[in-house]
Design brief:
alpha/beta, binds zinc ion, binds nicotinamide-adenine-dinucleotide
């Protein structure tokens, strides 16, 4: 067995740990903060990771109820939520029952939401199996499903009792999904640690190739950074630290909306472009250097991520104005001006609500034409 790390998330009575390591699912019960004893166990899994889910179930021993759902945004719906609740209730779920959500961010958000509302809340264990879920969505307690009016509009803040990140599960994850998750790792360096970003510039390819040591360190540092931010600002209060996690995301959400969530553009891919645009906007406003912006761009490009809007919409049906309107509609904007996360250099992010529309449009236009 390789290296194993435990990262605490300090949230008072809702504190929990993230365990990161290779093959930790094989002795999963040893990593839980509670005894399973007579508790009923429910394993909700993405069908793409059925093998990993079965491994987990046998490690938990005995009486396990299993249900497979499909991956992809479609599963974050009322229909699938109802199926999950039905499954739990028809197997006589109890207040002491435990739900394990095994899969990517979709299964985690769906399973987390179901666990938070069934019987007003049962114990939840997140078992993320995408790189994105291991460094981002499984940590922090946001759960939810999508509405026709927009993504993630229905949900709860509900902290898991534990997060088990088994890096061995990533071996089956397609390279495109690994790259998308990697963009979120880069985000942590750019928002809060120049040192981490500099390390990623040398270790990036090893991480994508699933080199165990590099992968472990990257996930651990990312989780530590997210845990620290979430510990300061559990519920994303106005003016709280959590807003920094939106670096690149104001742009990314608009690009995702413009592409229609049809799988053409993965969330992490949109984030990669969004990070570059956030740096270009910061450079345009004189906050950081062109040289740093170039560094961000070269890093992402060098690892096969996209850096310009032109790469996803060669003949844009959505021009700069339309993208700007989508940003203004994003739930994170309030009182007219859009909140942007800008950088005073790599590792130094802050929120600003004073960005002129013209500056944003100029950055968008040049990226559409690039
Ligand atoms: N709760 C949060 O704080 C938070 C944060 C970021 C993102 N999210 C949400 O996360 C979702 C995106 O997560 P995602 O990128 O993990 O998407 P996902 O769950 O759809 O997984 C991506 C794809 O990988 C497949 N897959 C998963 N694990 C695999 C494995 N080990 N091997 C092979 N295939 C595997 C899935 O079936 C799917 O096709 C979005 O819905 C987003 O809103 C939530
Ligand atoms: Zn994201």
């Amino acid at each position: 067995m390789g290296k194993m790390n435990t990262i605490p998330v300090s949230l008072g009575t809702r504190a929990y740990s993230i365990v990161v390591g290779q093959n930790i699912l094989e002795d999963a019960s040893a990593h839980l903060p509670f005894a399973l004893n007579e508790r009923k166990i429910f394993v909700l899994y993405d069908r793409a990771v059925e093998g990993h889910a079965k491994k987990l179930s046998s490690a938990l021993g005995g009486n396990v109820h299993m249900k497979g759902v499909s991956g992809g945004e479609g599963a974050k719906s009322f229909t699938v939520l109802q199926e999950v609740l039905d499954w739990l209730l028809s197997h006589k779920v109890e207040r002491t029952s435990v739900l394990f959500a095994v899969g990517g961010g979709v299964t985690g958000d769906l399973g987390g939401f179901a666990a938070s509302i069934v019987l007003r809340g049962i114990t939840l264990v997140q078992v993320p199996t995408t790189l994105l879920a291991q460094v981002d969505s499984s940590v922090g307690g946001k759960t939810g499903i999508n509405a026709v009016q927009g993504k993630n509009l229905i949900g709860t803040f509900y902290q898991p009792a534990a997060v088990l990140c088994d890096t061995a599960t990533l071996e089956t994850l397609p390279i495109r999904e690994r790259r998308a998750g990697f963009a979120e790792i880069v985000k942590y360096g750019l928002l809060g640690s120049a040192e981490f970003f500099a390390w990623l510039e040398t270790a990036g390819q090893d991480i994508l190739d699933l080199n165990a040591a590099a992968l472990n360190d990257a996930i651990e540092t990312s989780c530590r950074m997210k845990a620290e931010i979430v510990g300061e600002d559990e519920r994303e209060e106005a003016g709280g630290a959590r807003v920094l996690l939106n670096l690149g995301h104001t742009f990314a959400h608009a690009l995702e909306a413009a592409c229609g969530y049809d799988g053409r553009l993965l969330h992490g891919e949109a984030v990669g472009i969004g990070l570059v645009l956030a740096f270009r906007l910061s450079a345009r406003l004189g906050l950081c250097s062109e040289q740093e912006t170039r560094r961000v761009e070269n890093h992402l490009k060098g690892l096969g991520l996209m850096t310009d809007i032109a790469e996803i919409m060669p003949k844009p049906s959505h021009g700069a104005e339309a993208l700007y309107d989508l940003m203004a509609q994003d739930k994170k904007s309030s009182g007219g001006k859009i909140g942007f996360i800008l950088c005073r250099g790599i590792g130094k992010a802050f929120q600003s609500r004073d960005v002129e529309k013209e500056d944003v449009l100029a950055v968008l236009r040049s990226s559409i034409k690039a």
